[in-house]
Amino acid sequence: MSEVSEISQEASVGLDAPVDAAPTQSELDRKINRHFPGAVVRKDLVKAVKGNAIVPSYVLEYLLGQYAASDDEATIQAGIDTVRKILADHYVHRNQSELVKSTIRERGRHRVIDKVTATLNEKDDVYQAEFANLGIKGVLVEPATIKAHPKLLVGGVWCICDIEYFHSDDPRVVPWILGSIKPIQLSNFDIEGYLAARRAFTTDEWIDLLVQSIGFNPELFGRRAKLIQLVRLIPFVERNYNLVELGPKGTGKSHIFSEFSPHGMLISGGEVTVPKLFVNNANGRIGLVGYWDVVAFDEFAGKKKRTDRALVDIMKNYMANKSFSRGVETLGAEASMVFVGNTSHTVPYMLKHSDLFDELPESYHDSAYLDRLHHCIPGWEVDTIRGEMFSDGYGFVVDYIAEVLKSMRSQDYSDRYQQHFSLSSDISTRDRDGIHKTFSGLMKILYPHGEAAPEEIEEILRFAIEGRKRVKDQILRIDSTMADVKFGYLDRSGTWHTVSTLEEDEYPAYYHRERREDSEAADSAIEPTAGAAVPTAQDGSPDEHAQMVAPLFEGHREFQENQRGVSFDMLLAPYLRGAGQITITDPYIRQFHQARNLMELIEGIAAVKDAADEVNVKLITSESNGGEDKVRKQLELLLKVKQGAAAGGINLDVSFANTIHDRSIVTDTGWKILLGRGLDIFQYVTGDAFDLATRLQEYRQVKAFGVTYIREGQ
C-alpha cells in the first residue's frame, strides 16, 4: 500500500464546507476527461485545498490527483475533503513544529509532509536529513535512499515521511528515526497512451489544454500569448536550453519554475555560487546542475548587483559546452538554465537609450554571455496576472505533465521543419542552435506525436527565429564587431520569408542601430511600416500638419498579436476626415467591449470633423445569438452609442442583416477599408480608471489582424 493510500485511511470527509458550485463543463473539459482519465484535475481545486499551507502547487496537485482526478462532483468533493484532512493532519506548519514533534514522541511514529534536505557527515561517514518545517536535523538516512533520490543532497525534495522517536541516554544519538520516505512525484506513466490521446485533439484544443494545465484560462489569451506561456516549459523538455525573460513585475515569470515541476529548482540570483551551482572543489561534490533538469535564477536583473567573475566564466563555458571542470576532470550535465528578472523602463525607452538587456548585472551585460542564450521571451508583452485569468477548467496534474516532459528530453525534433523550410545560409552556428532548440522544444510540447501540418510547423519556426533574433539584435547594439544576420527562411518554392520581432515592428525608429545614431532623425522618422499608418509627431501622437500634406497609404497592412501603439485615430480617422456618409459593416457589435469600440471610433470621427458639420453613420450588424435577453442587451448598448454620438453631431442608424460576414468601412469620399477582424482588434482591457489602456487605445495590446485601404472611383 502506498504512503498516500495509508494516509487517506486516516482521513474522513465533511471536515470543511464544500467548495463553490462546480463550473459548467465545456466540451473541451469533457473531452479531456474522456481521453486522460485520472491524469487531469480541475485547476481551481488547488486554491480550495491550499489554505495557509506553504507548499508548491505540484505537491497539492499530486494529492488531488490521487483523490479528486474526476469529473464526478461527489468524487471531487470527497477528494477535496480527504486532501484537506491529509494536510491538516500531516503537513507541518513551522509554527506548529513543536506540537508535531510531541505527536511523534507520544505515538512513537507519525507521518509528515515536509521538505527534506540531506547532507553527508564526512566525520561520521553517514547521511543526515534535515526537515525544513519540522525543524529537526541529523536524522540518519540510508545510503540506498540517497542513491535512489540524489536530489535530497541538492536543494531538497518535498516528501511524505514516517518519522519515529526513540530516546537514548547517549546525548550524541539523535532520537528521530526515518522510517520511510517517498518523494512527491509520479512514479510511472504511459507515454504511448499520452501520444495516442494527443491525436484526438486539434492543435487549438491541445494548446488550450496545456494553458489550463499551467493554471490559466485560455479564453483570455491570444494565440501568441499562449505560445509565450508554453515557451516557459521548453527548459523542462529540452536539455541544456538557455532561456531569458525580462519584463514588468507581476507577470508570473518565476511561477512555472517554483510551482510547476518537481524537476526544477528556483533560486535567487543573489544566492548563486560556484560550489552551489557547479562543483565544490574542496570536497568534489557536484552542485545543482548535476541533479536538476532546470535551474532558474529569480530576480536576476539589477545593474548594480555584485557578481562573481569566476562564476560568470564557468557559466558561459557550461552554457556553450554543456560541461564544467572539477579539478582536472571535465564533467557534463544536462540542466537547462533560465534567467528571469524585472525591467524598470518601457520598451521604447530601453531601445532609445540602451538595449533590452540593459537591466542585467554588468558582468552579464556582455556579448559573449548573451550569445549563449537560445531564446528571449518578451516579458513586456505578458499581462500582469489578475484573478480572472486563472482557470476553473481541467488540466493535467502537474507532476504527470512534468514526467511527460522529462521523458522527452532525450529526443530531438529540431529537424522536423527541414522537409518544408530551410534557414538562411548566413545564420551562424549559435543562431542556428538557438532556433533549433526552441523549435524542437515547441514541437515536443505541441506535437509530441510528430504530426504537424506545414503551416503549423511554420508558425513555431517563425516564433523560434524571432526569439533568437531578439537576442542577436541586442548583441549587435552592445558589440559592433558582431556580424549582422539576415533572419528568415525559405519555403519549398524558394520564396524568402523575413522574420522580425514585434518590437521592431512597433518601434522601427528606435529599434535599428543605424537610426539611433541620429536621435533627432529617429524621433521624427516617418516611414510606412506595419506599426504606423499615418505620420506621427515627436511625442508619438498624430501629426495633424503632416497628415494634411502626406498622401494616405493605399494597400494592405498586417499587425501582430500583442502589438501596441495602434489606435482608431491612427488606423481609421484620417480616412474618415471630410466624409458626410460612412457605412460600417461589422456583424459583431453585440457585447459591451464591441459597443465600446464603436463608440471610440465615433469619438475619432467627432475629433476630425468640423464642429458645424453633421456626419451620417450607418451600422450594419447582426443580432446576438442566445435568445431575447441578449438581443435586448445588445439593443440597449446600441441605443446608448446612438445617444452619445448625437451629442457630437453624428447621426447613427443601425440595421440588422444576419447573413453578413465581411467587415468594412465605406465613405462617400471614395475610401473602402477592409477590416479583417472588424472593430474588435483590441485585447482584454480591465476597465480600471487608473490604467492608461482604459482611455488610450495606443497602450492596449491588439489581436492579430489585417487592414486593406482601397481608393475607389479614381
Task: Offer a few descriptive terms.
alpha+beta; 7-stranded mixed beta sheet; 29 helices; 19% strand
Please characterize this protein's 3D structure:
By secondary structure, the chain is an alpha+beta fold. It is 37% helix and 19% strand. The protein is built from 29 helices and 26 strands. The strands form seven sheets. It has a seven-stranded mixed β-sheet with strand order 20-26-25-24-21-22-23. A five-stranded antiparallel β-sheet has the order 4-3-2-5-6. 40% of the residues are buried.
Strand content bin: 15-25%
CA radius of gyration: 29 Å
Distinct helical segment count: 29
**Proportion of residues in helical segments:** 25-40%
Q: Give the N-terminus to C-terminus distance in angstroms.
A: 83 Å
Strand order of the largest sheet: 20-26-25-24-21-22-23
Summed over residues and divided by their number, the pLDDT gives a mean of 87
Low-pLDDT segments: 8-17, 515-541
Number of strands: 26
Structural class: alpha+beta
Largest sheet: 7 strands, mixed
Tertiary shape: globular
